[in-house]
């Protein structure tokens, strides 16, 4: 569904994306993980036709992005990191505008609006000005709006940033339901839990390069199954072990309290880069 080959994007001396190769399968939830400046958002901007690559080839459902922008835009839905709704308009009016921009016939447009507002649980607030919505409601409306023209692929750039944990989980459920209907999803995130719970596969980016690729379980196996956290003055040391027995044996030799836990994608990232995802 997404094919990236030799993708580069340079801003003068800065290599925002550096020789990236990646394929995303139909019906997959794929996550791009990495710190600020890793190249995630630049990659998304190229995929959704907002930026031109310096070099390389990018295809969406067999259509080369740089040559068939109009056709590509019909294939994709976009939920940006920043809110871009018209807050003086109602939820229904925001949806109506989007439908008209995509030249959806009136009867189909009205049916789509009602169906999608129900899908994101906003029917009762359809005629409320968006400026009165909570952050989670705005995010759900942005997802509904992105689905108006029935895209094959949904791009989500930090879909739950700034939302509280309860609202974040509602957005996760919504993404799963969309994927269950056959929509391919590519999302960027800083949240380790989000990537582990949602994504079929994850790509880790750092300094413009894709440095690791696989399922969350495959990536965690690369560093080890169990982590022992050892406090050391104002810092914490992390020691990774293949088996829990090895971790327990190591912890028993410590003179102070330690934390023993399963490894996660944050550990993978730290092992590969020496940095945390949120850095």
UniProtKB/TrEMBL annotation:
The keyword Zinc does not apply. InterPro entries: AAA+_ATPase, ABC_transporter-like_ATP-bd, ABC_transporter-like_CS, ABC_transporter_ATP-binding, DrrA, P-loop_NTPase. It comes from the Bacteria. Pfam families: ABC_tran. Gene3D superfamilies: P-loop containing nucleotide triphosphate hydrolases. GO terms for cellular component: plasma membrane. The keyword Membrane applies. Keywords: ATP-binding, Cell membrane, Hydrolase, Membrane, Nucleotide-binding, Translocase, Transport. GO terms for molecular function: ATP binding; ATP hydrolysis activity. It is an enzyme of class 3 (hydrolase). It is found in: Cell membrane. GO terms for biological process: daunorubicin transport; doxorubicin transport. Residues 2-232 form the ABC transporter domain. It is a peripheral membrane protein. Its EC number is 3.6.3.-. Belongs to the ABC transporter superfamily. Drug exporter-1 (DrugE1) (TC 3.A.1.105) family. This is Nod factor export ATP-binding protein I. It comes from Syntrophaceticus schinkii. The gene is nodI.
């Amino acid at each position: 569904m997404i094919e990236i080959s030799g993708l580069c994007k340079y801003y003068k001396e800065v290599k925002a994306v550096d020789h990236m190769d990646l394929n995303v399968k139909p019906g997959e939830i794929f996550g791009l993980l990495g710190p600020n400046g890793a190249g995630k958002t630049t990659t998304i901007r190229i995929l959704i036709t907002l930026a031109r690559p310096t070099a390389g080839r990018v295809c969406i459902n067999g259509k080369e992005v740089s040559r068939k922008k109009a056709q590509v835009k019909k294939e994709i839905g976009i939920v940006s990191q920043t809110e871009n709704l018209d807050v003086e308009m109602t939820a229904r009016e925001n949806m109506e505008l989007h439908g008209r921009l995509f030249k959806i016939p009136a009867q189909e447009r009205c049916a789509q609006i009602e169906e999608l507002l129900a899908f994101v649980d906003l029917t009762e607030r359809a005629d409320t000005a968006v400026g009165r919505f909570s952050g989670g409601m705005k995010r759900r409306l942005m997802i509904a709006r992105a689905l108006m023209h029935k895209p094959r692929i949904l791009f989500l750039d930090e879909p739950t940033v700034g939302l509280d944990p309860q609202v974040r989980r509602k957005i996760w459920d919504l993404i799963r339901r969309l994927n269950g209907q056959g929509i391919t999803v590519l999302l960027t995130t800083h949240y380790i839990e989000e990537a582990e719970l949602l994504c079929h596969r994850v790509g880790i980016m750092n300094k413009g390069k894709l440095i690791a690729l696989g399922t969350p379980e495959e990536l965690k196996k690369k560093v080890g199954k169990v982590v022992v956290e050892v406090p050391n003055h104002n810092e914490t040391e992390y020691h990774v072990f293949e088996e829990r027995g090895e971790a327990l044996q190591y912890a028993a030799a410590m003179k102070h309290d330690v934390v023993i836990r399963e490894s996660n994608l944050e550990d993978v990232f730290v092992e590969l880069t020496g940095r945390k995802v949120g850095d």
